[in-house]
UniProtKB/TrEMBL annotation:
Gene3D superfamilies: Head decoration protein D
Name this protein carries in UniProt: Head decoration protein
Species this protein is from: Candidatus Devosia phytovorans
Xref: InterPro entries: Head_decoration_D
Length: 124
C-alpha cells in the first residue's frame, strides 16, 4: 500500500449530507498500518473500531461499513479518523480495496455500503 497519497476527501466524495451529517469521528484500530483516503473499512464487531476491509475475516471487518476520508498511520496505536458512514455518493474508481479482492466480494462490499446510503458511481 502506498505510504503517501495526494488524494483528498474531495476526490472520493461527490455528494454528502450537509453539516457533516455523513461523517463521523471513529477509531482506526492499531495494527491497521498506513491507510489512505478512500480505503473501504470494516468495523470490528467486538470493539467498534475500524480496520481496512478484510473479506476473508470473521470479526466484522469482512463487511464494508465506512470509507476513510484522511490518511492515517495506525501501525502501532489506535488513531482517531474521519470516516464517511452514511448518505453520500462516492466515486467508484477512487475507492481503495484490499489486494486480491474478488469481483463478488467487491459487489458485496458495495451492497453493504448501499445499505448505509453510500452509493458508488463511476465518475471523475
Amino acid at each position: 500500500m502506498d505510504t503517501h497519497s495526494f488524494k483528498t476527501d474531495a476526490d472520493v466524495v461527490k455528494d454528502e449530507g450537509k453539516n457533516r451529517f455523513s461523517r463521523d469521528d471513529d477509531t482506526l484500530a492499531s495494527g491497521s498500518g498506513k491507510v489512505i483516503v478512500g480505503t473501504v473499512l470494516g468495523m470490528v464487531a467486538a470493539t467498534g473500531k475500524f480496520k481496512p476491509l478484510a473479506p476473508a475475516a470473521n470479526d466484522g471487518t469482512q463487511t464494508a461499513a465506512a470509507i476513510i476520508l484522511e490518511n492515517a498511520d495506525a501501525t502501532g496505536t489506535d488513531v482517531t479518523v474521519v470516516n464517511l458512514k452514511r448518505r453520500a455518493q462516492v466515486v467508484l474508481q477512487a475507492l481503495i480495496w484490499p489486494a486480491g479482492i474478488t469481483a463478488p466480494q467487491q459487489a458485496a462490499a458495495l451492497a453493504a455500503l448501499e445499505t448505509r446510503g453510500i452509493v458508488a458511481r463511476n465518475g471523475v
